[in-house]
RNA sequence: GCCCAUGUAGCUCAGAUGGUUAGAGCGCGUCCUUGGUAAGGACGAGGUCACCGGUUCAAUUCCGGUCGUGGGCUCCA
C-alpha cells in the first residue's frame, strides 16, 4: 500500500467500484448504471428485479471488506471503441452501451479489479486495500439519467473517508442534522403543525409561539421596508382566470396552479404569484418617469401545486408566504435598484446572523422573451450592481428565467449547508403582457422594467432554516418567550408576578412557571423550551428584591437587582 | 408522479406464527410534597392499532386498494 493521499473523490469513486464489484459477486445478473463520487460520498445505480433490502447493505458491506482485504489492483485497460462495444453487447450491459455512445474518441478505458471490470474514465486508487473507511448509507430509486421516462434503477448511497475518525465525524454530523431537523424541533417547541390527512398535505398551521416569531419577523420586515423607500400593498388571493392568461402563467406555470373555481359563470384561480396583483395597482394611474422607481412590497401568500413526493416540512409546501416586492423602474435604474436590494439583503441576512452566502447570476436561457438588447442591459446591470457592492458571484449560464436574468443568493448555515432564499429577477415579459407604460421626459410612452425580489424567499422556508440554524434556540429578539420566571415555592408566586409586570412593561415577553414542581424540573423544562433567560425566585430574592439569572447557554449567573437585569436585557436587545 | 420503507395513546416507541381486558416512558388530570439551578412521589384518564375492502369461525396482525409520512429521483420559494 502506498502512503500517497489521493483526492477524496478518487477515493470514493474507487469505493463505488468496490461496491459494484461486491454487488456483482452477491447478486449475479444485476446490470450496472453509473457509480460516481458525489459531494458527501458516492453511489452506484443498479438494475435488478428485486430491490435491495436494508439488510442487503450489511451483506454487501461485508463483501466489500473482503475485496478490500484482498487488496486487488485496479488495472487500467485501454480498449478500442469497437471492441468495447462488442464486449458490452455480449455482456448485455445496456446502460454502459448508452454511456459509450456519448464518449468521444476511438479509445475507451476500463478498470479491471479482480473479476470485475467496468468502463470508467478513472482515475482510481492503485488497489482496493487503499480504502480504509467506508459505509453504505441508504438505498433509493433513481431514474436512469434522471429522467422520469427512463427505467428506475436501485441506487445505493455510501461514503468513504481517509480515516475512520473522519467517517465517524461525518456520521455524527448526520446525526446532528437529524437532531436539528425543523420538523422535529417544530413539534418539540410547539411552533407549527401540518395536518396532512385531515386538512391536506403541504399546508402549515402556526401555533402561538411560531405565529409570534412570524409576527416579530413581519414587523421588522415592514419597518425596514418602509425605511428603505418601499410602500406596502395588499392583493387578493384569487383572480379571474383571464388575468393569469394575460400574465402568461397559464402558459408557463399551469402545472403548478390549482384548477379554476367556477361560479357566476366566471372562472377564478388561486394565485401562484403576486405580480399580476401588483400590476393591477400600477395600472390605476398614468405613471410619469418622475414616479419611478415604484417599490411595492407585500407579504403575499401564494398557492402552488407541488407533486406529493416533493413536499418536505416547511421547506417545500403548497401554500406559502413570500416576502415579495416588485420594483417598477426605467431601464437606466435597474443597476441602482438591484444594488439597493443587495444592500437590503445583506442587512436582513446579517440581522439573522447569516454571514456566509454565495451569489449566482443566471443568464439568458435558450427559450426567452424580450429583446437581446434588453437582456444585455439587464444582465450587465446585475453584474455591475454586484461588483459595486464588492460582492463575489458565480455565473449560471442559461439558467435565467424565460422572462429575464436573475440573481440568486444562497446562504450557508451552521452545518455548512446551502439554502436558497433571496432571488432578484428582472422581468421584461409582464410589462409587455400587460402593456404597462410610463410617460417619459419626451412625453412619449415607454415600457417600464419590473424587478421581482424576495429577500427571505418564503416565510415558511426561512423559518425552517432559522429553526435549524439556531437549533431551536432563537436569539433574544425572536424568542417567543424571552424570560421565564421560576418561583421556587408557592409563597414566591406573588413576588414573581410583580417581577413579570415590571418586565412586561419594558416590552419583554415573560412567562411564569407556577406549576407544583421542583426547581430542577422547572429549569429542565425551561432549558428544553430553549428560553434565553430563566429567573429563579426564592426567599433570598424576595427579601433582597433581586432575581437569580440563569441563561440558556451560560448557566447560573447569580442574583442581581431587577433594574440591573432590565438594563442588561435591553442592552442585549439593542445589539 | 416513480422506487423502497413506513402509519399502534397528544408525543417517542414496544408488541402479538390471526384468538377474550393492546403495553411502556413522557405529557395530561387529581392528591401528597414547598423544593436553590436539567426529571420528588402516588393514583387516574387517554387507543375503531391511518382509512376502505377481501380472505377467515375470528383481522390491529395476512392480502388488495386509498390517504399520508420518511429516504431518493425529478422539480423548486
TrEMBL record:
InterPro entries linked to this entry: aa-tRNA-synt_IIb (IPR002314), aa-tRNA-synth_II (IPR006195), aa-tRNA-synth_II/BPL/LPL (IPR045864), Anticodon-bd (IPR004154), Anticodon-bd_dom_sf (IPR036621), Thr-tRNA-ligase_IIa (IPR002320), Thr/Ala-tRNA-synth_IIc_edit (IPR018163), ThrRS_anticodon (IPR047246)
Pfam annotation, one family: tRNA-synt_2b
Record domain Aminoacyl-transfer RNA synthetases class-II family profile: where: 181-475
Cofactor note: Binds 1 zinc ion per subunit.
GO molecular function: ATP binding; metal ion binding; threonine-tRNA ligase activity; tRNA binding
GO biological process, one term: threonyl-tRNA aminoacylation
Gene3D superfamilies: 3.30.54.20, Anticodon-binding domain (3.40.50.800), Bira Bifunctional Protein, Domain 2 (3.30.930.10), Threonyl-trna Synthetase, Chain A, domain 2 (3.30.980.10)
Classification via CDD domains: ThrRS_anticodon, ThrRS_core
Cofactor(s) needed by this chain: Zn(2+)
Subcellular location: Cytoplasm
Catalysed reactions listed for this entry: tRNA(Thr) + L-threonine + ATP = L-threonyl-tRNA(Thr) + AMP + diphosphate + H(+)
Protein keywords: Aminoacyl-tRNA synthetase, ATP-binding, Cytoplasm, Ligase, Metal-binding, Nucleotide-binding, Protein biosynthesis, RNA-binding, tRNA-binding, Zinc
SUPFAM superfamilies: Class II aaRS ABD-related (SSF52954), Class II aaRS and biotin synthetases (SSF55681), ThrRS/AlaRS common domain (SSF55186)
Enzyme Commission number(s): 6.1.1.3
GO terms under cellular component: cytoplasm
Subunit structure: Homodimer.
HAMAP family in the cross-refs: Thr_tRNA_synth
Family the entry assigns: Belongs to the class-II aminoacyl-tRNA synthetase family.
Protein's UniProt name: Threonine--tRNA ligase
Organism lineage: Bacteria, Candidatus Desantisiibacteriota
Gene: thrS
Amino acid at each position: 500500500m502506498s502512503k500517497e493521499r489521493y483526492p477524496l473523490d478518487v477515493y470514493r469513486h474507487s469505493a463505488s467500484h468496490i461496491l459494484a464489484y461486491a454487488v456483482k459477486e452477491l447478486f449475479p445478473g444485476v446490470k450496472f448504471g453509473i457509480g460516481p463520487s458525489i459531494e458527501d460520498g458516492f453511489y452506484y445505480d443498479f438494475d435488478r428485479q428485486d430491490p435491495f433490502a436494508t439488510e442487503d447493505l450489511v451483506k454487501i458491506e461485508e463483501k466489500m471488506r473482503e475485496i478490500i482485504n484482498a487488496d486487488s489492483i485496479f488495472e487500467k485497460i485501454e480498449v478500442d471503441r469497437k471492441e468495447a462495444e462488442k464486449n458490452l453487447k455480449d455482456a448485455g450491459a445496456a446502460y454502459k452501451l448508452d454511456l459509450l455512445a456519448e464518449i468521444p474518441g476511438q479509445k475507451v478505458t476500463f478498470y479491471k479489479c479482480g473479476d470485475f471490470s467496468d468502463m470508467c474514465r478513472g482515475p482510481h486508487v492503485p488497489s482496493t486495500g487503499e480504502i480504509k473507511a467506508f459505509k453504505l448509507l441508504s438505498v433509493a430509486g433513481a431514474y436512469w439519467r434522471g429522467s422520469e421516462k427512463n427505467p428506475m434503477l436501485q441506487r445505493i448511497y455510501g461514503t468513504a473517508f481517509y480515516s475512520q475518525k473522519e467517517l465517524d465525524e461525518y456520521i455524527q454530523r448526520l446525526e446532528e442534522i437529524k437532531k436539528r431537523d425543523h420538523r422535529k424541533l417544530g413539534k418539540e417547541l410547539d411552533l407549527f403543525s401540518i395536518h396532512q390527512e385531515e386538512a391536506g398535505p403541504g399546508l402549515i398551521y402556526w401555533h402561538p409561539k411560531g405565529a409570534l416569531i412570524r409576527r416579530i419577523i413581519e414587523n421588522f420586515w415592514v419597518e425596514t421596508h418602509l425605511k428603505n423607500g418601499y410602500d406596502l400593498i395588499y392583493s387578493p388571493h384569487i383572480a379571474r382566470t383571464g388575468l393569469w392568461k394575460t400574465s402568461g402563467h397559464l402558459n408557463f406555470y399551469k402545472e403548478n396552479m390549482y384548477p379554476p373555481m367556477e361560479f357566476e359563470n366566471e372562472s377564478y384561480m388561486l394565485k401562484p404569484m403576486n405580480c399580476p396583483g401588483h400590476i393591477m395597482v400600477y395600472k390605476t394611474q398614468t405613471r410619469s418617469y418622475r414616479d419611478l422607481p415604484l417599490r411595492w412590497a407585500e407579504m403575499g401568500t401564494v398557492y402552488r401545486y407541488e407533486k406529493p413526493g416533493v413536499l418536505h416540512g416547511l421547506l417545500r409546501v403548497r401554500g406559502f408566504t413570500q416576502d415579495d416586492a416588485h420594483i417598477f423602474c426605467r431601464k437606466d435604474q435597474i443597476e441602482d435598484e438591484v444594488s439597493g436590494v443587495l444592500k437590503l439583503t445583506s442587512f436582513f441576512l446579517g440581522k439573522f446572523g447569516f454571514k456566509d452566502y454565495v451569489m449566482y447570476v443566471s443568464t439568458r436561457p435558450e427559450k426567452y422573451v424580450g429583446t437581446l438588447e434588453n437582456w444585455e442591459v439587464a444582465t450587465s446591470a446585475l453584474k455591475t450592481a454586484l461588483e459595486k457592492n464588492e460582492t463575489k458571484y458565480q455565473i449560471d449560464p442559461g439558467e435565467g428565467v424565460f422572462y429575464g436574468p436573475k440573481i440568486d443568493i444562497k446562504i450557508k448555515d451552521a452545518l455548512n449547508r446551502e439554502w436558497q432564499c433571496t432571488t432578484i429577477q428582472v422581468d421584461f415579459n409582464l410589462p409587455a403582457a400587460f402593456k404597462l407604460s410610463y410617460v417619459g421626459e419626451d412625453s412619449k410612452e415607454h415600457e417600464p422594467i419590473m424587478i421581482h425580489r424576495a429577500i427571505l424567499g418564503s416565510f415558511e422556508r426561512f423559518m425552517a432554516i432559522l429553526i435549524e440554524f439556531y437549533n431551536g434556540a432563537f436569539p433574544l429578539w425572536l424568542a417567543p418567550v424571552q424570560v421565564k420566571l421560576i418561583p421556587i415555592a408557592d409563597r414566591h408566586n406573588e413576588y414573581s408576578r410583580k417581577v413579570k409586570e415590571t418586565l412586561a412593561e419594558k416590552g419583554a415577553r415573560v412567562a411564569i412557571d407556577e406549576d407544583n414542581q421542583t426547581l430542577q424540573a422547572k429549569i429542565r423544562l425551561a432549558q428544553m423550551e430553549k428560553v434565553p433567560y430563566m429567573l429563579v425566585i426564592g426567599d433570598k430574592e424576595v427579601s433582597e428584591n433581586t432575581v437569580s439569572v440563569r441563561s440558556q447557554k451560560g448557566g447560573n449567573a447569580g442574583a442581581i437587582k431587577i433594574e440591573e437585569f432590565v438594563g442588561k436585557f435591553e442592552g442585549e436587545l439593542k445589539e
